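Researcher: Checking consistency across runs. Here is Ribokinase again:
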Amino acid sequence: DLLVVGSANADLVIGVERRPAAGETVLGGDLAVHPGGKGANQAVAAARLGAATALLARVGDDGHGRLLLDSLRTAGVDTVGVLVGGAPTGVALITVDPSGDNSIVVSPGANSRLTPGDVRAATSLFQASRVVSAQLEIPLETVVEVVRALAPGSRFVLNPSPPRELPVEVLAACDPLIVNEHEARVVLGDACVSEDPADWARLLLAKGPRSVVVTLGAQGALVCDRSGVTRVPSVRVEAVDTTGAGDAFTAALAWKLGTGAAPAEAAAYGARVGAAAVTRRGAQQSYPTAAEVEAL
Ligand code: ADP
């Protein structure tokens, strides 16, 4: 089974002609409210593919929390690990201008209250999981506790987003560490001495993870472990909205690894799922079923 540990947010989206300046009010279009957050996105993506998936997360005791729980349950995610209360549900306030550029304010809310103690209290979820997948929209000390809570033989997958430097203990557990170009640059920091993504993969591997995946949007992805760098092609599609593509890629790859697939094979499947996700609008509502991935 797959356990995702991470964030759940309500994305509140308003189209505007232009962004307001300080002290100014502008009128926008109708509000759209979407279930989001990288943890919830990954859990929904995996469950849509047919993976037995649980989410460990925290939402508020409010309407946004209920919206998220509803979306997770509709997709078939096990929500016993979705804790309720402590702060309002995390929210992303998103304005989109006519050119498609976003301005986003995130209020982490309940996500920032997902504690190491919450991880320790979820032992049965960890015992039942072959693969555990995390991101960084929850406190870093909680992610450190996730690494410590892994059951023997289970595998840890991390997408360090939003990116920051990572403790050695977390890096050493990653199999793989999954980064896009921006995340690769931040995690490498001063060690980012090349413009070649294959070099980033090798430099990241030297920081301690057992394997590394670098995603390259329409260019596909690179898989890197001690045996070298393997290029995974993307699937050519008509991209409509890339929101949540990385989350879909990661979820699909994590699940496939848990079924025993080789890393390059799992990444190729992730690339197909990511490609399917960019052909539709939104994040969770854009995620394909296994049959839709087959048909791609
Ligand atoms: P992120 O969303 O984290 O920035 P990427 O943009 O690299 O991540 O996308 C993740 C994966 O989704 C890519 O490795 C690729 O397989 C797939 N993907 C993303 N954008 C496209 C696209 N325009 N066409 C085909 N596949 C895509």
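Researcher: Does this match what you'd expect to see?
Model: One thing to look at in this run: The first helix runs from residue 38 to 48.
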